[in-house]
């Protein structure tokens, strides 16, 4: 069971959390202006790296706040957790955040 | 709902769970009497500077508990507090909070009937809770004045430890009360067995 | 009471506490402190089981948890038959009943042993090769035959009556293993103020020290040092000692699972004592001191009862005072067996020793043993063994400098102690995802780079000398506790070192003999070679093809031997072949322990409403809806479900029905931006909804499909009372919180679940208003003042309520939201008032029928996660003027606007008495050849007492263009004709609701 450092509550067991998939994919401001391809890209396409991945997590059975985390998908190490709406102190290699 | 007492047409309160105390050598589990409870929410910025409202201390860190006289607060998140007070004070508490926060953005929701509370007390209390709660409940990991949402087995709970004494307060939603109580009672059978 | 092989003195058994057990119906005697293995051996019972594949007679191989052969069923009464216990791990207690396994009709005469004679038919991969063809034989012939022969042990046939407990724990330092390294680690770690847990799988702490008769530590005999150390540790309040506890799984972030055996060793366990306790420990630091496993030697017939590991012979003699034979021959490729041989000789046993190594590699040890009067043969190989149900001789032969095997000679014996070297127990380190490194000096894999906060000490790290184990353990414990410290221990010298032995040289045809590598799965040296010859090059493939190391012992005694054989066959060095992955559990764990308390009434929370007891008292039948237990129907005496539901449905349309809607999800949405937030979450517009009014809302996922629906009341400009489906309550709140927190954190809105704050009492039917009117204080209930889709605050019996004028039946309806503790009182008052009108409580089944009569969908029944509002006929609710809401853009996705989508329609069967099956498929033409084109399916289907016929809702491709068409629905007998209709069967204009 992972130990996840909630930005508000500190290290807590994984069973209190839910993962919400890839982070930093902002909902487009004007969905109506997007063509089908761009919209499908936003809806369905996600990265799946072996290595550092930016993810959304919610401390569901704790403070119930969403936050972001950098997790190494290979080692399961959490490199950093940070509040929603903020950027990590260092970005995953070779990837940009939106 | 004190105003109903004595009224001929008053509805009778039927608590969600009426279970006798569970008493073992190292732990006692008791359903606590009804209380008034509210969920208080403030915008993030206001939450950071909030001090006190209607006698409830808000200026405690996340996951901390405070009690003033009969009113207690548990800060469950950065901008969320669980407030509790005597059962008959519900109306007064709501009015006082609204008055105190008039003009400020806030959210107050009455959840008095949503919650059921238990005391889990005794030297073995932490071990009993740890049958289903994955947190470190030692005095180091969960010192007096701690309060947090967590889980117990398959139920979500709010767990509070008002002071250093091994007396924990467990709250859950009313339909989970039977399960939570039975879970704790089952775990409590471990108590006398320890050599 | 006679125990033929019990030594007259010595051992850690308590001779003052004799006991008896029953093995295969025979009464055998022993003492407290015995294991089942030592007790069986004390009684001369060397044959204890039959092997898995060839049904060969097998005996005890080991004194520890690595035992692959002696797997016994322990019978503690009904529901308490526990198969596959390692005899070496079962503590003997008075009255214990054990049985051997995997034989028929008896252990002594086993028909399955014919497999041994037919062995040439069962090479590696036998199953894969043989049962491939013909395909049709698989179901009828091969699988049943394999199933009958497969499996090990007898599964219990009644529920397990024992308790199993769970415990979460945290500590600064978790030490796994209570041998010398683990004890030293505990001494160091617990000398700090850190919290420490020491878990050991044995009944007594001490590990190998428990059978150490000659070693000294700091000048004292090992046993004395052990006693003093344990006493010290017991006195340390920050240390939790867990004997009989196996760390079986090492998971992420130092989360380690332990299984503690609490009761099986007790003759009369207290009734409340859990049989086992599963610990989930989160440790800041872990010290692994799990020791090492001895390897057997590989030669023909190395598996006869009486052949065991050399160190185990020593343990049986020193710890249990059992001489497993009267003449024991040790066969070894290393030094440690000389200590075993010396101890055996000292115990009065006739001893000989055969060393694979040449004389010059073992001169001093050999000389010492010879000086004790033992024959020692060096530079010899083992050709085979004699005997059947008990070894009677070991066939040896000299090997010359050119590896030429000389003349054979048989050494008579009734017990053989094998030592092919040692393998560090790196299982947990490997589970922690630490990297292993091959260390040629000890011919084994040792921990290399750690992936978590873990360190290994002692033999599990490849360190064998006792003094080094202690020193290393102490340093590891101190460092793990964050207080680095060193202490040296002066221990007597340990005999260490061995020559790696693979399959021993032989003058027999290696293809015609069985030299076992994996005893539990009956894998031989030639199986491993065959796998390589057939092209399996990866050790993971060799493992799966031969099944070596895949038995429940996880190949503790066999992995290194199998790996080395494969490497030899591949002509590659061992590091290039690598090792297989170790996975939890280290030793088998009972399912009951994993399940723990989650059984029976604690399997899942059963959620009940405040009205539940009332319904139960009236004989209601209940159904499960998510975790809720809801009243399904209220049968009167003599009524079946059909009759009860029909009566309930008629009452709700004819007079007044009473329904418990408390399980509906409810969310209070509060804040100045509440309406804006609602606009974004729902397809509807909320801006113009006046306080005091309600609206039916539909919510989509971002992909455009319906997520949930429900009535929403606006209580105030900045406060909404949202309802959701029963099953969708948590999902909807999560969905809302997700958008609120992650996409629109600038909106000032707060969400609170109020599902359980309010009991919901639905009063539905033409007499609903008259029923509740006398109870409601402060609200004008007239149609004009309180029309359909309105909400008012009121008091009922003094309780502050939210009164909704809403309907899920199509009749005049009210839903009284009352604080839950007052729910039952208000319900009873309404029931009382309604008596004059024949008020009828109805359950979820009638609720379903009533809404289907009016064509109201149920999310999750008509919808399946791929339905749009238009699909279910709700496109008109979409607020076109809103530029955006969650899911809006997706409604224009090509697939969602393409023609031919399934649409909600009604179906009327040609035979009005036929009630279709929900899920029945719809076709246009039943004469179409198979596979037919399915154009839709039935989503809801009921007998409607109000219509006097069956009704159904269905999702059918392009359904709205098929009105009046006859289609065909699958029924058990074939097809039934149905006519497509509008999805509404009662009050098509929807007038009754305005009453
Ligand atoms: Zn948190």
Folded structure, characterized:
The complex is a heterotrimer of chains A (98), B (195) and C (995). Chain A has 98 residues and is mainly beta. Chain A has a domain at 19-25 and 48-88: Folate-binding fold. Chain A is 9% helix and 34% strand. Chain A has one helix at residues 36-44; strands at 3-6, 10-13, 18-22, 52-58, 66-72, 78-83. In chain A, the strands form two sheets. Chain A has a four-stranded antiparallel sheet, with no helix packed on it. In chain A, strands 1-2 form a two-stranded antiparallel ribbon. In chain A, a hairpin with a 3-residue loop joins strand 1 and strand 2. Chain A is globular. The termini of chain A are far apart. The model of chain A has no long low-confidence stretch (mean pLDDT 92). Chain B has 195 residues and is of the alpha+beta class. Chain B has four helices and 13 strands. Chain B has helices at residues 44-49, 90-100, 125-129, 177-188, and strands at 22-23, 28-31, 35-41, 52-53, 56-57, 65-68, 71-77, 80-86, 107-110, 115-121, 146-152, 155-161, 167-173. Chain B is globular. The N and C termini of chain C lie far apart (92 Å). Among the domains of chain C are: 14-122, Roll (Ubiquitin-like (UB roll)), CATH 3.10.20.440; 164-292 and 424-480, FAD/NAD(P)-binding domain, CATH 3.50.50; 296-420, FAD/NAD(P)-binding domain, CATH 3.50.50; 505-598, Arc Repressor Mutant, subunit A (Orthogonal Bundle), CATH 1.10.10.1100; 897-995, Beta Barrel (Elongation Factor Tu (Ef-tu), domain 3). Chain C has 995 residues and is of the alpha+beta class. Chain C is built from 24 helices and 50 strands. In chain C, helix 5 (180-189) packs parallel to helix 6 (222-234) and helix 5 (180-189) packs parallel to helix 11 (466-480). Chains B and C meet through strand 9 and helix 4 of B and strand 8, strand 15, strand 38 and helix 22 of C. The structure holds zinc ion.
